[in-house]
Design a protein that fits this description.
By secondary structure, the protein is mostly helical. 57% of the residues lie in helices and 4% in strands. Among the domains are: 247 residues, no CATH class; 112 residues, no CATH class; 166 residues, no CATH class; 85 residues; 123 residues; 85 residues, no CATH class. It has 61 helices and eleven strands. α10 links the parallel β7 and β8.
């Protein structure tokens, strides 16, 4: 990239941008005023003169040796060197400052110098840059440092520390080699740019020992052509010299630093200026724009300004433009650049009539990238107008470059009615979308068999169907021949492809029951659209152009494609230029009577004509029909019977046909006419309606008059086909019974007397009906009717006890599920029944507990709670909890724990080792708080152990189910937490992998967040454990839940939590106690600011100490917008909010949804009240994240 008159290699610029550059500074940097220091050769002359030993030219070739010789004469060479360099009036010059500027505007500034002067340090201090400084021999590790390194010592050290003589160089590079070790690691890790050296410098000779032959090393020089640089493994970066002035180097470095320091606003403005002047010719401007074109942010500043063909041609010569033609989708920054350029080309050139020709020349001969195709296709689709002439080439290119999986875009494009104005283009597009192609089929055989293929089409059947009706049917009067030709051609090609892929199987005809619209063809494919198109076109021709239509029919009849021949037969039905006799003769002449491929259309033609044809013509058909198929194969007589049945139904008045059919029927009495004689295959689908055979009152009257007859009537539907679509079914009969008994509960008592012993379906229906019924607590009996007993008249109204008496007489296995569910539900909201208060119900519940493993409505679910509430064991557990609650309420004053009989029932469930017991334990454990109140000792001994992971390994499956259910539905309080549940939660957190359910793990995190904020237990005691042991899923769920709950608190409550534990926890995590925040954690914790209004400034300061950012689904911006209250919150402390947002945006890599929308509103609120510098930073970050127009907010 050019900076003024210096072209800096892109690799060097990239290294600096990535913080991987070392600026290596030599004596040449200190020559210019006001530094005015000598280079090494002149330094040696100065020292020689002071020692009265003037060096010769030969001495100057090895100045280190000359100085070493002086030292051997006991001359204080190091002091003389220091005195010669340490000039009181020597100050940093422009080059020193430019070097420091380049270093400081990039990450990790690194400067290494062999100079002894301190000008680089002074220049850095003058720019308020506090850099670490290292002086030989105490050097840092070469691949891990930042700051200034004096490789050969510095003037603020004792002079003896300076590397001056050959002996000093020997120690530094050979014997002790501390300089060599530093350089070796430095050169291996970083790109290095030498400044202020010539290839003849003695220092370069020593450095050459560490340089090696390869590496990312550059040297700024006015002597770029010298071979010595390449010998040293350095790439020269040339700058011009005007006389003896090296100011071009200074200008170039200053410009490099200046451009790097620019914010996005400055770059956007500069790009706008350059683009406004047309493609540049000045090297610096050219390289700047070229660099901008490859930058994921600045490319957007370019594309929003660049207009006209000159800029398109200029961009086309850049390598980034090639992404428009790449078959692979780029990633990272390249993807952003490609998207920006693609959108620019499509919007400003493809869709612009004046600029379109230039773009066409560039894009017409090259393949398009997926993004380029998609963008251009979308632009064509989005425009309201019809495609104008100048856009036709783009449409053609879109069609010919469309990918195999191009979605429905072009199909939807074809549905626009504006195509009627361009039928030529509509036909072209239709032809493209109906082009057949192979696709994978279903493989039915073993894997060793060849895979199956099917014929598919480019387009989608729904949209093509719409297009045919909306666009092409109106075009039939003018374009029927072309449409028929197109449809026939595509069907022929599809048949050919299908024959190649699946020899012997006619997929097109098999998938189409009838040429005319038919209920059997409800489920459509693209082939159906083509068949409709051919049919509609053919019908139009027969009507409007009979001769041309007849010729088309003849061609189709001679085709070798069955579906085309079916079209011909269908057309013969509609021909008005042929009599019924001629139509029948044509069938016989073409030998179509028993052609299975054409059967439906032939039958339809027969059905239309036999009743109108002459006796002779009908007789000829009957003669051929009686003969059966003449294909040499053996056929069932039913083939002829089916045809005669069809003819008879078509012409029932024809005596000859009736006689022939009757004769054949008598010969084959087992034969019956089919529902669809014309079709060889049919399909039926729909919903079973489960119609009820009786109304509620009809069944009530029947039961009241004769329970036995009513039962028989109900049972008569037990054998009904459950899969027929209409009519009463067994399910419908049971539903009718439930409805009747729900309204008339006594009908169930009457019917119970006559039930068959094994009729569990009816018993189940009765129980479920009583469960929803309004059962009287006191029997209301008809006058003169005795209390209910077996074989006596039933009461008009019945009590729960009456129902229980009946149910108790039935086998428990037959009604366990229904009765347990009835007990657990306790009736309905409108008709509650307190079964748990009744002793007969309790005795029955005891008997209903299963002694063998049974299944419920949900079988072997991973969700044990869901299975439990749909299982008799879970229902019985709920029933006994209802009993406990009732007894506790009834005996509050004397309650001292579970009565023995209730404890026994609960113990039986808890101690049952079958799956029945497991499901009961799952449900009981979620009511831990209830049982801890009802009987603490029982809960601690029976329920608390269920949460422990230190049980037998075989119990881990159960513990997992217990915890999965408890974190969703569990109840607890501070006392339970203190008595062991909190420790159990933390133990489960450590074994989160054993839960094998990320949602359960996250829910545990949310529960722990509630404990931290709502419990009186001090979280400081257990938060370190959570921090070190919690998996990422739980940790993030905990943090996010804390944030949500803080937002729901009153400000004073939230502030109390801040003082109680949040500030200390947050500060500790920042200080890596006990573990540092990850980026995701820091970003989630940053949202706590929203829930801490009274402590917001301090919380924002903590956010600024982390690398927090916004994530894709963050709602932080949404919480700051939308209402007057949020706006007032922003304006009350605009600086804090601006700092907060700037920091979060700075840490964001993937912009959240609707970033532009929310930030625009926030900036509008902050602009009148927030510091301008912070607003500028906020806008800069918004621009980085894709809000290009943020500068205009």
């Amino acid at each position: 990239m050019w900076f003024r008159e210096v072209e800096v290699p892109d690799e060097l610029v990239e290294a600096a941008t990535e913080g991987k550059l070392v600026l290596f500074v030599g004596a040449g940097a200190s020559l210019d005023e006001p530094s005015g220091l000598p280079d090494f050769a002149n330094l040696v002359r100065d020292v020689g003169a002071r020692a009265s030993r003037v060096p010769t030219d030969r001495d100057l070739e090895r100045p280190d040796v000359f100085l070493g010789d002086l030292a051997d004469l006991q001359i204080e060479v190091h002091t003389l060197v220091a005195n010669a360099i340490n000039k009181p009036d020597s100050q940093p010059n422009r080059l020193h400052e430019a070097i420091i500027d380049v270093a400081r505007v990039h990450p990790n500034p690194r400067v290494v110098t062999t100079n002894y002067d301190l000008h680089l340090e002074r220049a850095s201090r003058s720019k308020a840059l506090d850099l670490d400084v290292y002086r030989a021999p105490a050097l840092p590790v070469g691949d891990d440092f930042s700051g200034i390194v004096h490789l050969h010592g510095a003037l603020d050290q004792p002079p003896r520390k300076l590397v001056v003589t050959d002996e000093d160089f020997g120690h530094a590079y050979l014997r002790e080699a501390w300089a060599a070790r530093f350089l070796d690691r430095m050169f291996s890790a970083f790109s290095v740019a030498f400044i202020g050296y010539s290839h003849g410098d003695i220092v370069m000779q020593y450095l050459a020992r560490s340089l090696g032959r390869e590496g990312r090393r550059f040297v700024f020089t006015d002597d770029a052509d010298s071979r010595e640089w390449r010998r040293l493994g350095l790439r020269p970066v040339h700058y011009p010299v005007d006389g003896s002035s090296h100011v071009a180097l200074v200008d170039g470095l200053e410009r490099w630093a200046e451009l790097t320091s620019w914010g996005r606003l400055a770059h956007r403005q500069r790009i706008a200026e350059l683009v406004g002047n047309g493609p540049p010719t000045i090297p610096e401007e050219v390289s700047y724009l070229e660099q901008a074109l490859g930058d994921p942010e600045r490319v957007r500043y370019f594309t929003e300004q660049a207009r006209g063909s000159d800029w398109l041609l200029w961009a086309a010569n850049r390598p980034e433009f090639n992404w428009l033609f790449s078959p692979t989708v780029p990633s990272g920054a390249d993807r952003t650049v490609a998207q920006a350029l693609t959108t620019w080309v499509a919007d400003q050139y493809v869709m612009d009539e004046q600029e379109s020709p230039t773009a066409l020349r560039l894009l017409r001969s090259r393949p398009w990238s997926p993004g380029m195709w998609d963008t251009v296709a979308h632009r064509l689709f989005a425009q309201e107008r019809r495609v104008p002439d100048w856009q036709v080439p783009w449409l053609v290119l879109v069609l010919h470059r469309s990918p195999a999986d191009d979605g429905d875009l072009l199909d939807m494009l074809l549905c626009k009615e504006s195509w009627q104005e361009r039928p030529d283009l509509a036909l072209m597009l239709l032809e493209h979308r109906t082009r057949p192609l192979p696709r994978s089929g279903l493989d039915f055989g073993p894997s060793s068999d060849a895979p199956r293929f099917e014929v598919a089409f480019m387009g989608d059947d729904h949209w093509l169907d719409e297009a045919w009706k909306k666009v092409f049917v109106p075009l039939l009067p003018q374009h029927a021949p072309e449409l028929l030709d197109l449809a026939v051609r595509q069907l022929r090609d599809a048949n050919r492809l299908a024959g190649a892929l699946q020899p012997g199987f006619d997929a097109l005809s098999f998938g189409r029951s009838a040429i005319e619209p038919h209920p059997q063809d409800e489920f459509r494919e693209v082939a159906d659209v083509l068949i409709d198109a051919a049919r509609d076109s053919l019908e139009h021709l027969l009507h409007a152009l009979p001769q041309e239509g007849a010729a088309a029919v003849d061609r189709l009849a001679r085709a070798h494609v069955p579906v085309l021949r079916r079209l011909a037969v269908h057309a013969w039905r509609l021909r008005e230029d042929r009599s019924p006799d001629e139509k029948l003769r044509w069938i016989l002449d073409e030998n179509l009577l028993y052609d299975l491929d054409l059967q439906h259309e032939v039958y339809m033609l027969l059905g239309d004509t036999v009743a109108l044809a002459s006796d002779d013509a009908v007789g000829a058909v009957l003669d051929r029909a009686k003969d059966g198929p003449q294909d040499g194969e053996e056929h069932s007589p039913y083939v002829s019977y089916n045809l005669l049945a069809w003819l008879h139904s078509a012409a029932p008045e024809n005596a000859t046909i009736a006689e022939e059919f009757t004769t054949l029927q008598e010969q084959n009495p087992e034969f019956e006419p089919r529902e669809h004689p014309d079709l060889n295959t049919t399909m039926t689908s729909g919903f079973v309606e489960n119609a009820e055979p009786f109304s509620r009152d009809e069944l009530h009257e029947l039961i009241e008059s004769s329970p036995g007859e009513a039962y028989a009537a109900i049972r008569s539907y037990a054998t009904a086909d459950e899969f027929r679509l209409t009519g009463p079914t067994w399910t419908g009969a049971l539903n009718a019974l439930r409805g009747c008994v729900t309204h008339y509960p006594s009908d169930g008592i009457r019917l119970a007397d006559v039930l068959a012993p094994e009729d569990s379906d009816v018993r189940d229906a009765l129980v479920r009906a009583w469960s929803a019924a309004n059962l009287s607590s006191t029997p209301e009996r008809a006058s003169g009717v005795e209390p209910f007993e077996e074989n006596r008249a039933c009461p008009i109204a019945i009590t729960p006890e009456d129902v229980l008496t009946v149910i108790a007489s039935w086998p428990a296995d037959a009604v366990r599920s229904a009765v347990a569910n009835m007990f657990a539900r306790g009736g309905t909201a409108d008709h509650p029944t307190a079964w748990h208060t009744l002793m007969p119900a309790r005795r029955l519940a005891t008997d209903l507990w299963p002694t063998t493993q049974i299944t419920g409505n949900v079988v072997d679910s991973e969700d044990h709670y869901l299975e439990a509430i749909n299982h008799p064991a879970g229902d019985l557990a709920q029933f006994w909890m209802n009993v406990v609650a009732h007894e506790w309420r009834a005996h509050t004053d004397t309650w001292s724990g579970l009565p023995d009989e209730l404890r026994a029932e609960l113990d039986r469930m808890v101690q049952d080792q079958s799956r029945n017991g497991l499901l009961a334990r799952v449900l009981l454990s979620t009511r831990l708080r209830f049982f801890m109140g009802a009987d603490p000792a029982w809960a601690k001994s029976r329920l608390m152990p269920l949460f422990a992971w230190d049980r037998d390994e075989a119990d881990a499956f159960e513990v997992r189910g217990i915890w999965r259910s408890f974190v969703q539905y569990g109840q607890y309080d501070d006392q339970i937490l203190a008595e062991g549940l909190l420790d159990a939660m933390l133990a489960t957190m450590r074994r989160a992998n054993d839960l094998d359910d990320d949602e359960a793990v996250a829910q545990l995190g949310r529960q722990l967040a509630t404990v931290a904020l709502k419990s009186s237990l001090d979280p400081k005691g257990w938060l370190p454990t959570l921090t070190t042991d919690a998996p990422t899923v739980l940790q993030l769920a905990w943090i996010r839940s804390v944030g949500r709950q803080l937002r729901d608190m009153e400000p004073k409550e939230a502030s109390a939590q801040w003082s109680r534990w949040i500030r200390e926890y947050w500060t500790g995590r920042i200080d890596s106690l006990p573990r540092p925040l990850t980026t995701d954690e820091a970003s989630a914790v940053a949202l706590w600011v929203l829930g801490l209004p009274d402590d917001r400034p301090a919380a924002v300061e903590l956010v600024e100490r982390t690398d927090a950012g916004l994530v894709k689904d963050d709602r932080v911006l949404m919480h700051l917008t939308g209402s007057r209250r949020e706006h007032q919150d922003l304006t009350r402390d605009p600086e804090t909010w601006a700092r907060y947002l700037v920091h979060l945006l700075r840490g964001t890599t993937d912009p959240p949804w609707a970033l532009d929308h929310y930030l625009r509103e926030i900036v509008g609120v902050l602009r009148p009240v927030a510091p301008s510098a912070l607003l500028t930073e906020l806008i800069e970050e918004a621009m980085r994240l894709g809000c290009t127009n943020a500068a205009d907010w």
